[in-house]
Amino acid sequence: MSFFKTVINWHSIRNFVATWLISTMPCTELNGDGADMILRWSDQALFDLDWMYEGVFAACRDFDTTDRYYDGMIASVEAKQDFQESAAKLYIGNIWTGDYYVVYKEYVAFYRIADDVMEVRRIELRKADHVKKFIRG
């Protein structure tokens, strides 16, 4: 096995483990009201994280840059855990869908708040036509 394949396999394993940890151990932190807020990633959002990782790596061919991008996306979503409603609201026309979104570089994470759970539902490419219709900026 070549060195390059070994490096790719190691990063694939790291990405798998990171995604598994996110899905099995939801983060809990105190929100602004002092109550516990649970951050949950849907199965689709975890799939989208993998898709994002592969897309960024295909574009830059650098594992360090890709890892920083991946970690930055997760950190930008986790930053909203304290003040969930500080993100932009997702509207269709003049009707609020109940979802919020966070833009991180070229990707958008969509989440919904229900009781004490903040569930990340999707991560999409910001330039996609179906996303451009709904987000502002």
Order of helices and strands: HEEHHEEEEH
Straight-line distance between termini: 46 Å
Low-confidence sequence ranges: 1-10, 24-35
Structural class: alpha+beta
Helix run count: 4
Please, what is the oligomeric state?
single chain
Shape field? globular
> How would you characterize the largest beta sheet?
6 strands, mixed
Strand content: 25-35%
Percent range of helical residues? 40-55%
The averaged pLDDT comes out at 77
**Global Rg:** 16 Å
Biggest β-sheet: strands ordered side by side in the sheet? 1-2-6-5-4-3
The total beta strand count reads: 6
Write the layout of secondary structure elements.
Blueprint: H1 3-24, E1 27-30, E2 36-41, H2 43-60, H3 63-79, E3 88-92, E4 95-104, E5 107-114, E6 117-125, H4 129-132
Parallel strand pairs: 2-6
Antiparallel strand pairs: 1-2, 3-4, 4-5, 5-6
Helix pairs in contact: 1-2, 2-3
Question: Can you characterise this structure?
Answer:
The chain is an alpha+beta fold and 137 residues long. 45% of the residues lie in helices and 31% in strands. It contains four helices and six strands; from the N terminus they run H-E-E-H-H-E-E-E-E-H. It has a six-stranded mixed β-sheet with strand order 1-2-6-5-4-3. Helix 1 runs antiparallel to helix 2 and helix 2 packs antiparallel against helix 3. The protein is globular, with a radius of gyration of 16 Å. The protein starts with a helix and ends in a 5-residue tail after the last helix. The N terminus is likely disordered.
